[in-house]
Amino acid sequence: MPIKSEKTKTKWVCQNCGYETSKYLGKCPDCGSWGTLAEEVELTVKQNAASQRALRDDEPSLIDEIEIDSSIRFSTGLEEFDRVLGNGLVQGSLTLLAGDPGIGKSTLLLQSSCNISNNGKKIMYVAAEESSSQVKLRAKRLNLSSDSLYIYAQNNFELIKKHITDLKPDVVVIDSIQAIYSNDITSTAGSVSQIRECTNLLMDLSKSQNITIIIIGHVTKDGNIAGPKVLEHMVDSVIYFEGDKYKSYRILRCMKNRFGTTNEVGIFNMTEDGLQQVTNPSELFLNKEETNTPGNVIIATNEGTRPLLVEIQALVGSTAYPSGRRVSNGVDYNRTLQIIAVLEKRLGINLSKQDVYINVIGGMNINEPAADLGVALAILTCARDVVVDSDTVIVGEIGLSGEIRPVNNLEKRIIEAQKLGFKKIIIPKQLKSGEKKNFKGIEVVEVKRILDAISACVNKVTA
To answer: Which of 207, 202, 167, 197 minimizes the C-alpha distance to 47?
Structure first.
């Protein structure tokens, strides 16, 4: 009598968030996505890829007795990238770089790989989505070369692991994790199970062999990293590469970093020769010669802890509709409505029959409330056809009662305005007498109310 084979157990897994269930559901109960549950074979303990991990059994050590090698950190050759990482990559770390398609993730890591390899490190670049000749073509376009950078076009994890073990590189780049698959997982590449298990195995490889691994991750249409949320928990650092693909600038933003702060950002400019570092980012968003018109205001905002001077424009005009339109590009729409409401209630400015358009020059997105006063003055000066002095910078948050509230990193903003040659900066009244410093070449004006800011910065009335 033939022996019956054990029935294969399956489960349904949401490819958006990783939710698991024993039966098919049209809508995921966890993330609310429709049609994202896919059937996968449920692995037994023997089949589970996690069982392939090497067993590490280190003795417990006192924290004061643990020695750190001075060369545990090394530079990527790009100061902006190093800034975001916390002064360079850490040996044996696992870093996740995510961003929209075409934003420049592969370009950034190829440039960094060549820089690192030229400093004596051995690099293995795993191209899971391209052929070796295609990577070489991009390197040639970017004028990159190296004698210790190895390109390996492969998406099978077992083969990748074999060559990593044989080559023993210092750094491995995986481009991308969604294209890698393991033979021990029955689902297709890019599924939740494949991403989770392959990342787990890469993490174990990184820690056991002290190899620095950087993996590229795709993002969904909502801007979240594709795959399970546990992916972000497993890695040591999570870095987002942001920017408008129709603009040249790119922002590298750290969302998680076990070896440094998450308050730093790096700014790059995308050119034909690849990504160029921007040491003075205010140059990208500022044209001081064209700001001397009604509705144009220069503000000092922050990206991480880095101050940026950005130009805000407002256009106020009569509407052809029963109520005025509100359009905001680069500034939060609800924040703009709140500022308009404060101007109408506290200053008696009637904008109900006016269209109000707000735009941040350069495609920058400003999320912090320190831009409130700049937005308010841009609207007021355009509505009243007056000009804010082009040598003046505006900083301040507006409360619902019309008061100007304190902001963070104020001294850095003042120094940035001073460095770029501005003569005056309007700030909230928050510095105590003992904290005030003499900033040479720039007048610091403290204000409590919006009216105080208007009288301090309005230059002249136009004809």
So the answer is: 197
Q: 250: buried, middle or exposed (CB in 10 Å: 19+, 13-18, 0-12)?
A: buried
Residues 6+ apart with CB under 8 A from 46: none
Q: What pairs with residue 277 in β-bridges?
A: 268
- Which of 385, 375, 383 has its CA nearest to residue 453? 375
* Sequence ranges of the domains in the chain: 10-41, 71-279, 283-461
| Residues 75, 389: Cα–Cα separation, whole Å | 43
Residues 6+ apart with CB under 8 A from 396: 370, 372, 373, 374, 404, 405, 407, 426, 427, 428, 447, 453
What would the two tokens of residue 69 be? Answer: 């090698």
Give the largest CA-CA distance in the chain: 103
CA dist 96 and 236 (Å) reads 8
- What's the CATH architecture for 283-461? 2-Layer Sandwich (3.30)
- What φ, ψ does residue 108 adopt, rounded to 5°? -60, -45
Tens digit of pLDDT for each residue in 94-146? 999 999 998 999 999 999 999 999 998 999 999 999 999 999 999 999 999 99
Q: Which amino acid is at 120?
A: G
Architecture of domain 71-279: 3-Layer(aba) Sandwich (3.40)
What's the predicted TM-score (pTM) here? Answer: 0.81
